[in-house]
Amino acid sequence: MGKITAILIGAGLRGGHVYASYALEHPDEFQIVAVAEPDIARRKQIAALHKIPEENQYESYEKLLQKECMADCALVCTQDQMHYEPVTMALQRGYHVLCEKPMSPKKEEIIQMGMLAEKYNRVLAICHVLRYSSFYTKLKELLDSGKIGKLMSIQAMESVGFWHHAHSFVRGNWRNAKESSPMILQKCCHDMDILLWLAKAPCKKISSFGKLTFFKEENAPAHAPKQCMDGCPHRDHCAFYAPKFYLEHPKAETDGLVYAVTPTSDKESVLTALKTGPYGRCVFCCDNTVVDHQIVNMEFENDVEVSFVMSAFTKECKRTITLMGTNGEIQGDMEEGRIRIFDFVSGNTEEIYLHTPSKGHSGSDERMMHDFVQLLGNSENSEVPTGAGISVDSHLMALAAEESRLSGETIDFATYKKNLMEEVQR
């Protein structure tokens, strides 16, 4: 297999510090040859790391994609509402595409992207990285082997983590649904994809409840300033005091969250950025609109029933799941890499411990990049596990859940999808 080349569209945290870094760690397999990024500091940083020549550094994806195809694939890592156009242009230019999730917050664009990949006969992979994790791969293997008999119910939870929610969904790029996408789509389309995969049947019905309850101006403590560093009297008693998190919390560095604040993570640069920047705002004085807790209930065509909970009010950022079958039960914790299986007949409990790297969705990010590069290196491209055709359903499930949350009505998913498909195809 020869080296796979790529252009990078969007050099933020996910694009620049996660997916593109695969080229630095595996230079014989993968190379970034061009970058499009409006932020000059981020653009120059990525260009320096990957030795990208000046003529291949672009301020906008439009300028880059106006050029003749110069690589095997495009990594589209722009903001949620900016995926459709660069993905479309890249497919038309002849690139295979790896697109950050979600595909789009717009139902019509999600469907059209799936159709375009088929039209141009190109790989369009969506970054549903959890399918590549050793944890969910093992769960799928256990279910398919009949380890707990017929699957009947799933109870899953995404603990967002109080600090991660404040960073990404209160102060950060995904705080406002109109500017990005609803929380259940942006954060949890991963989970919708996994639940659809494990249930092994199309979704039949969806209902959802959730609100933005806590991170609102009415809950701000007395005399709290708009920016944390403007002499906040609550700094020693506030879990969300920005300087403390970005300078002291281990996840700020290991997960790269500090690089959303400033391209350089030294103390002086961080404090300067927090004085006036969005990540230094009081969490009760932001323009956030996405929910901070939500539950989604689903019924699948094979009678499997699923309850999914997303909450900002947790200590850790983690995913846990319970799979209930006719012959047994499986409990799992992704971040701990622990799976516990209880057999109803024998009464025995079996425990499995998996190796889980501490970063990158427990190693899923790197595995996804490896598989994507290997896929493109094959002379005959096989089906990608997270291809657009597969991912359309899970995205539409998330949007149906959001419609249910807002309307208070249960959504008949088959009818919902059918009506959307017909509308796009007219």
TrEMBL record:
Domain Gfo/Idh/MocA-like oxidoreductase N-terminal: 7-126
MF-aspect GO terms: nucleotide binding
Record InterPro entries: Gfo/Idh/MocA-like_OxRdtase_C, Gfo/Idh/MocA-like_OxRdtase_N, Gfo/Idh/MocA_Oxidoreductases, NAD(P)-bd_dom_sf
Gfo/Idh/MocA-like oxidoreductase C-terminal domain span: 140-381
Top-rank taxon: Bacteria
Gene3D superfamilies the record matches: Dihydrodipicolinate Reductase, domain 2, NAD(P)-binding Rossmann-like Domain
Family the UniProt entry places it in: Belongs to the Gfo/Idh/MocA family.
Name by which UniProt lists this protein: Oxidoreductase
Native organism: Faecalimonas umbilicata
